[in-house]
Design brief:
Chain lengths: ~110, ~110
Amino acid sequence: DAKTTQPPSMDCAEGRAANLPCNHSTISGNEYVYWYRQIHSQGPQYIIHGLKNNETNEMASLIITEDRKSSTLILPHATLRDTAVYYCIVRGARQGAQKLVFGQGTRLTINP
Amino acid sequence: NAGVMQNPRHLVRRRGQEARLRCSPMKGHSHVYWYRQLPEEGLKFMVYLQKENIIDESGMPKERFSAEFPKEGPSILRIQQVVRGDSAAYFCASSTSVLTDTQYFGPGTRLTVL
């Protein structure tokens, strides 16, 4: 599975959009980009995933560059409860590639 | 629709005892994954199971650890003769059988070895 690179930490003001970048320059054609977050020491929470096209759901938007080598997770109106570690994970679709490989993630702090 | 359930949420064991961690997948999910998070570290994959089958155990320590997912009942992660280094949070995730389907995580079991 392709490796991802994320900034170790970011700050964002409450009410503003939080934009979390992720580089995955070695991603292959059938690999998906997944985003999870872990609030304090709770279980990881699924946020969103995508293959090629941009995606949006009730939690966030995912913007994937045309060459697929990087992506950005957007939390449109960050709240204090969005403070968490955010993980960008590249995951294959082939048999045997189902496990998630977590990096160190980005520690996002939302400030009042 | 209940999410992934894990019990116990907290487990304290003395060195040398056995620890049994249980995971009930979401309704309709037949695949289970176990991950471990050591203190101040990231999550690491341990094992991937379908009903009555271990599919990938590449992340399991070679000794003392075993996992099962019987035809009926929850998945069990078993740690024999626990040592202090086993103290960690153990998370279970589940998904459907579709290869690309999303894994949803449970709240975890925090194991403390005294």
